[in-house]
Amino acid sequence: MSAVLSADAAVQANHFDAWQQVISGAFVPLQASGPRQARFRARIRSHHVGAMHLSEISASPHRVSRTPKLIRGGDSGQLKVSLQVRGNAVVCQDGRETLLAPGDFTLYDTSRPYTLNFDESFRSIVLMFPRELLRLRPNDLAGLRARRFDGRRGTGRLVRSLVQELCVREDAAGSRSGLLICDAVLDVLAAAVEDSAEPAAARGDLLGRLRSFIEEHLADPELGPEAIAAENHISVRYLHKLFSADGVPVSGWIRARRLERCRRDLADPELVELPVSAIAGRWGLPNAAHFSKLFKATFGVSPREYRSEHLGG
Fold it and tell me: Which CATH number fits domain 2-150: 3.40.50.720, 2.40.50.140, 3.50.50.60, 2.60.120.10?
């Protein structure tokens, strides 16, 4: 099946009805919505290879949702693997939000609500197949939904290569080689799942890794939620959620760590010749007046007073 939809007029909610029908027919019932007063263009090319359904999608920015109401209408027990080829996407399922950059892929379950947000024009390849085809241990799936896999290295690169091979093979739908590639995709995908489990445990929890990243980049005045989220392949909203759950907003954590580094340097006799403004600047706080105000609010004295107290004038 191949379908093309384009709209040159201002997009209103009901203009997504046709596209919604196309993608619901290609996958499972879905909702589609997008920005108003913008051109919308979309294309999907789909075919079956054995039990797998392969789709290549190119479209303008929009949002796709699988809602509880749609799930209650019937679920065929499918898993979807989405490989990002161009543009970024944010996938959300079971409270996990993951940013996909080109080369990344993720897995999600049609039996549970999910959303896909595309804030820019994109291209992606989506595989859909019965859940039982992916050999998983009990409870494994819960930890895999909306999780990012790197398709540029290791076993993930093999998954990416095989999925792209299926996409370009015109004869895959009716050939034995196409079926063998499908089997290989499932085998390598299961291996990628296995390979990802141990490194994730070794790295510790995500919040700890985010804090380490912040510590390493405190000197960068451009360090902020957007940069941190992008570099760690998660959404800004999920980043805020992680830090808020721990009691300290991410901006508050960055500010506190910068002030602590400044406090330490102000008390260091080897840095006595370094101006207060230079110490603030080296830790990402170039506005001297703002730094002085923050420092006094945190430690009760001005930076100069603190230095004088600890270095004897």
Answer: 2.60.120.10
